[in-house]
Amino acid sequence: MLPCVYLVVPCYNEEEVLPETLRQLTAKLDALHGRGLVAKSSRILPVDDGSRDGTWAIIAAAAAQNPWLSGLKLSRNCGHQNALLAGLMFAKERCDCAISLDADLQDDVAAIDAFLEAFAAGHEVVYGVRSSRASDSILKRGTAQGFYRLMRLLGADTVYNHADYRLMSRRALAALGEYHEVNLFLRGVVPLVGFSATTVEYERHERFAGESKYPLKKMIAFALEGITSFSVKPLQLILALGLAVSALSVAGLLYALISKLAGNAVQGWTATMFSIWLLGGIQLICISVVGSYVGKIYQEVKARPKYLIEKSIDET
């Protein structure tokens, strides 16, 4: 039996690139079906993440003409990870496997063939891994590589040079649905699912049209979300820092007492002010780190829904 494949595409204000994305994905499904690799029930599933432009209108109009096309519209902007999860959870009861990819066509559509080959070979999770970062700026390349190394150092099991271009089997999707955390970082959650996994290398392209939805500020916030969602080592580092500062303080106190007894006491105004500012800064940083974890606990305890579906187009 041919596998039913869903292509899940989160979209936020993508009206400039979406028509070309749908055209390329439609051509890909046509070709795969023609070669007897996917079932006719396969679908392209764009997920409108509360866009403020004509993204949903494009999806609805295309779905009326394109038998491959379904669609979801979320009630508001819930963020890329939640929109992606919404699409995957919608697809998990309807497909044999789902492939998630971004709408900007940076993820090479041609790699879908290799994903399906790996799935046919028995792998239930297939990660798309960038073959190189030659197209990135020096800053972006350095920060991205530093992020992956830092995540590994902190104990988070992530796949190097992998974003959200991946295939998941129906069983893997069902397992993913058992993870209920509100602070969602799929790049860290999916490896926890387990099952047989492999990687497929692909060349990441330039964005086809429109503007990136991940400027530097959002990228930093996303990285911090991943770190604090999957590791408590920052809290352990705070303890180590506190012990080190305490040891230095005791050493400084002993030095001051010895100097006083020896009659070599110095006014030390500069050193005093420096230490006050240094310790004050360290304390604020530590409070901020602890506060971020407390904030996450607050969000998890409330357990608000990660997304709500306003409209759906499903012809299966």
Question: What do these coordinates show?
Answer:
- The chain has 316 residues and is α/β, with parallel strands linked by helices.
- 50% of the residues lie in helices and 15% in strands.
- It folds into two domains: 5-211 and 305-313, Spore Coat Polysaccharide Biosynthesis Protein SpsA, Chain A; 233-302.
- It contains ten helices and eight strands.
- Helix 1 links the parallel strand 1 (5-11) and strand 2.
- Helix 9 (233-261) packs antiparallel against helix 10.
- The chain is elongated and about 90 Å long.
- The model has no long low-confidence stretch (mean pLDDT 79).
The general outline is elongated
| Spatial arrangement of strands, main beta sheet | 7-5-6-4-1-2-3-8
Helical content, roughly?
A: 40-55%
Specify the biggest β-sheet: 8 strands, mixed
Q: Tally of extended strands?
A: 8
CATH superfamily heading of the largest domain: Spore Coat Polysaccharide Biosynthesis Protein SpsA, Chain A
Please give the domain count.
2
